[in-house]
Amino acid sequence: MADASFDIVSKIDHMEVDNAFNQTDREIATRFDFKNTGTKIEKSGEKVNIEADGEERAKAALEVFKEKLIKRGVSLKHLDAKEPQLSGKVYKIACEFKEGLSTENAKKIAKFLKDEGPKSLKTQIQGDELRVISKSRDDLQDAIQQVKDHPWDFAVQFVNFR
Q1: How does pLDDT run along the chain (162 residues), one tens digit per residue?
Q2: Are 61 and 94 in contact (CB under 8 A)?
């Protein structure tokens, strides 16, 4: 019987991020508590910038964006939001999205699976993903559950289960 495998990755669904951004933009434009506060949200590539006249308004706009991301199924572990910075009379929050499983994080998962997971597992780091291989599909499903249950400081998804 051939070995079964799956890949552990850390990817962002960019369409869902765009949807969350558009919903946030619409909500900021129409919500009463954001009227006449100069609050706006802009997206350029992988970066999102939030501007507002007050620090509290900027933080509130960030919270609206986070709520929309959660509703769209995007993990907040991908979002790296900086503290509000005063620039002239405007507070700015720069947000970036982290994507891809770093070699260091892949090694953490591999070590965790070696220590805690079923003994039949083998792992291989392949670029920005980690392949987990075993003869037993049940062991792979146990490994997926263990990785899901562990509190990582980065988001993980599972793809290519064969």
Answers
A1: 568 889 999 999 999 999 999 999 999 999 998 888 889 999 998 899 999 999 999 999 999 999 999 999 999 999 999 999 998 899 999 999 988 888 999 999 999 999 988 888 999 999 888 999 999 889 999 999 999 999 988 889 899 888
A2: no
Which one-letter DSSP state was computed for residue 154?
A: S
> Alpha-carbon distance 14 to 28, whole Å?
21
pTM, 2 dp? 0.85
CA dist 104 and 127 (Å) reads 11
Q: Which CATH number fits domain 14-97: 3.30.70.20, 3.50.50.60, 3.40.50.2300, 3.30.70.990?
A: 3.30.70.990
Residues of the chain with CATH 3.30.70.990: 14-97
Can you list the pairs that 71-76 forms with residues at least 24 positions away whose Cβ atoms lie under 8 Å?
Answer: 71/20, 72/13, 72/16, 72/17, 72/19, 72/20, 73/13, 73/16, 74/12, 74/13, 74/16, 74/17, 74/20, 75/155
Q: Which CATH class is domain 4-11+101-159?
A: alpha beta
